Amino acid sequence: MQIKPSAELEWSPCLEGQECARLLLPLDYTNTSDTRTVAIALHRITAPTRGTSAHRGAVFFNPGGPGGSGTFLTMAAGRLFGIVVGKDYDVLGFDPRGVGASTPRVDCFEDEAEREIWGVQGGYRFVDASDDTLTMYRARERLVGRRCEERTGGKDGIIRFVGTPSVARDMAEIAKKLGQDKVHYWGFVSFFSALRTSDLHVSHYERFQSYGTVLGQYFAAMFPDKVGRFVMDGVLDGYNYRDALWNSNLVDMEEVINSMFIICHLAGERCPIYEPSPTLVRARFLRTLDALKLSPVPVHAANPPFVITHTLLTMQLVLAAYRPFDGIRFVMSTARALETDDQEMLAMTMGVIPPTARCDCAAQLPTWIMPNEAFYAIACGDNPASGTFDPEIFVNVYERLVADSPHAGPFWSGYYLKCAEWPGRAAWRFTGPLEAKGANATANPMLIVQPRWDPVCPLRDARAVTERYEGAVILVQESYGHCTISAPSTCTMRAIQAYFQNGTLPKEGATCEENEVPFVGRVKAEAMDAEDAELVWATRKLVDFVPRFGMP
After folding, report:
1. Cα separation values, 312 from 196, 200, 477, Å
2. What's the mean pLDDT in 25-40?
3. Chain-centre distance of CA 388, in angstroms?
4. Which residues, other chains included, contact 366 with Cβ-Cβ below 8 Å and sequence gap of 6+?
5. What is the C-alpha separation between 209 and 211, in angstroms, rounded?
6. Who's near 519: CB < 8 A, 6+ residues apart?
7. pLDDT: is 287 or 540 the higher one?
């Protein structure tokens, strides 16, 4: 259905018990003479207590990216989040400017078919600081930048007005329209699995960041007096993001990858490549991986047929680390299928390894759900040095990333290249400190929840961010994966619920265990009432909405 944009919030029914709106806000907050607007898409699930004194307002959700659609998240998983935060809050998803159903969108390709073909054309080699892949990646990113400028209104088009400060200001304006003095917020991982297969191409990894926590840091630094109940899950260092270095992320990636070999060993024969020790499991997997360098495996049983290469299996391993709770099963099964040339099993990997472009009219999704190039415009627009490639900086970034993670480092170094070839910066950049202390402390202390071992947002970053916001407390979940919801933990969800309901913060040094272990199942049984049972159910279901990278 079409929702007409308006300067005031005008809600329309869009699903059972859900409402949608499109709010007109200024395109350029720094120029009051510019009358152009953006239409911000909103989707909410109203609380049963709406209209009563028990109603607490709306919790804003951002699913990361940058480029993730909050309206799609709310539509897909909003009721689960409602169980966690409590039934006296509305669940509110919004699409940041340039993203999803908000208009104008940052679309640099004619249609999704053109975008898919462009992704596949890049080939299946990771960038390397010392060979011709670097020049190819740079050329491709330069072309995307030029195309985005041409397709989105030139140097004064939408790509200059989607920066994070503008999105933070939009949140403040939305809260004002809702009649809320404070913004309640939960920001975390991108909840998009690859909606189109080419989105998993080695040059298409826009959605793998925890931008929701970056947006949270910006908002709390810019509007500390408007911070209500504020949760950040899986934290990326805002300074590293703002400088577009992307070189602090992979500190714990190999630890997470190694955990999959440990769990495989502990699972015994339930793991397809079980060996008597984790070291032997790892060696067995790496033999299969290394063999692909000289002998890629053709998969003729698939339609269309394809070839599994060393690069593609590496991608599957790295991306499964986002969600090892389920990813371990598929990664180990793929390794076993490669050992035995199990064509039927290998055919099941088509679309995740490798990404393919193919016409599937029956599977077409609405245009507003489809990926676009918002990552470039947002992340690169926030960077003071966008459009300036420095070979020395790139080599340093590359070498640090590869030293931290030989598997993910080459893949991850492409982030720097995206912004190094981007044509311009945002019209409004926030250059102040990403902190809130003393007289500028947040109106309410923030809760930060973080896995012990996050593959792309290390605990080290989360601790550093916690120190920058006075009164903030960190709760560490003893699990592997990106964000706490990558592994079910009722303990963590209870802590988040207590925070939203009562403002209760965990004690310093508090930790939570996960409920289940891959291959093994539940760690321990719990006695629970109906309300607890509902929370346990919601906790387990939320894992299904963490990106299914590397899995069918």
Report:
1. 17, 10, 30
2. 97
3. 26
4. none
5. 5
6. 263, 264, 266, 267, 270, 271, 328, 329
7. 287
